[in-house]
Amino acid sequence: MGAFVISKRFNDEYKFVFTSRKGKVIFTSLSYELKFECEEDIERFKASIETANFLKFKGSGGKYFFKLMLGSDHFATSRKYTTELLLQKGIKEIVQYGAKAEILDFSSNDSIFEDEMVGQEVIE
């Protein structure tokens, strides 16, 4: 099952990505000033996934991508794919697993492994 992963951009705004079952990023959201806006949009997407539209494009470099639309709103942009078939697989993953995907929040600056690193010496 995929997952929505919330994180911070360098400018301290929030974003989320949807990752596949294998951990690859499928799409990245727009920026949000507040974390709760990010969380609300994920829930809105999960509740209305069947109405989402995928506008497919081929970039000037020959790679494929899509813009995810909810109604007339641009919601997210996909990563670049080398083939149209891979792009279609990415869309299928969203449609199949998006509504059930868990939300992971990595937006805090705290290190997840900080406690385990305390007292360990670095071996060079």
Q: Nutshell version of this structure?
A:
This protein is α+β, with helices and mostly antiparallel strands and 124 residues long. The protein has helices spanning 35-47, 84-97, 114-117; strands spanning 3-8, 14-19, 25-29, 52-58, 64-70, 73-78, 102-105.
Could you please describe the fold and organization of this structure?
The chain is an alpha+beta fold and 124 residues long. It has a single domain (3-117), classed as PH-domain like. It has three helices and seven strands, in the order βββαβββαβα. Strands 4-5-6-3-2-1-7 form a seven-stranded mixed beta sheet. The radius of gyration is 17 Å and the shape is globular.
Q: How are the secondary structure elements laid out?
A:
Layout: E1 3-8, E2 14-19, E3 25-29, H1 35-47, E4 52-58, E5 64-70, E6 73-78, H2 84-97, E7 102-105, H3 114-117
Parallel strand pairs: 1-7
Antiparallel strand pairs: 1-2, 2-3, 3-6, 4-5, 5-6
Organism: Flavobacterium geliluteum
Protein name: DUF1508 domain-containing protein
InterPro entries: YegP-like_sf
Classify the fold: give the CATH topology: PH-domain like
Note the overall shape: globular
CATH architecture: Roll
Percent of residues in β-strands: 25-35%
Q: How does the major sheet shape up?
A: 7 strands, mixed
Residues in helices, as a percent range:
25-40%
| Number of E-state strands | 7
How many domains in all? Answer: 1
**What series of H and E elements makes up the topology?**
EEEHEEEHEH
Structural class: alpha+beta
Distance between the termini: 38 Å
Number of helices: 3
Q: What is the averaged pLDDT score? A: 87
Unreliable spans are 111-119
CA-based gyration radius: 17 Å
Main β-sheet, spatial strand arrangement: 4-5-6-3-2-1-7
CATH level 1 name: Mainly Beta
